[in-house]
Amino acid sequence: AMDGAPPPTSPTGLSAYVAVSQLLGLTLLATTGAWLGRYRGGVAWHSPLQFNAHPLCMVLGMVFLQGDALLVYRVFRHEAKRSTKALHALLHGLALVIALVGIIAVFESHRTKGIPDMYSLHSWCGMAAFVLYLLQWLLGCGFFLFPGASFSLRGWYKPQHIFFGIALFILSITSCLLGITEMLLFKISDSYSHFVPEGILANTLGVLLVAFGLVVGYVLTREEWKRPPLAEEMALSMDFKTLTEGESPSGGSQ
Prior knowledge:
The protein is mainly alpha-helical and 254 residues long.
């Protein structure tokens, strides 16, 4: 950028959609807390309430933080790529740690109460989402954050990384919806069909999860909202290609 040039701005509408996504995200966290606090007795670790840490951690980690990690490249459009990558990886890593706490909570709670593990569709989808999310994070760090992968290998893997990032976000939200339904059928199966307040609140949480996913997905798939490469990144990219592939930066089309 030339000296004295106006600072770069975000595309029209992007900031508004990101703001809406954050409002929805904070609302779904508050709704989760309200449901667990008002109707399920709250959250405590070494007690019969340990299970309640599971839905709270999964919504916080596998939905809200995962969604925010996906938005990093849209929000921080003009910051250094290395810093943006690090924040992207950090948020995903934090989401994984919080989700792991949630998984430990449900297994320990089941063991204490003598409930079998991993028999429901929710548990299958949820565990698949977590394991694949961990693998996606490890591969992403290996290919993009740490040196070693060649230019062509990064170029091949990048579309896979983007696709599976969105797919795992969808799977995570789907798993949460299955979990909400399962929990309601276990806890209030006799009264759920009578539109009781707990059922309405939990259904509202499900709608908020879908809305958050839709807004994040819309931001991610708007082509004109993708992060543009900075001039210095283009130069570094060509230098990296020269070092790893042995090609001349001047060779081939730009």
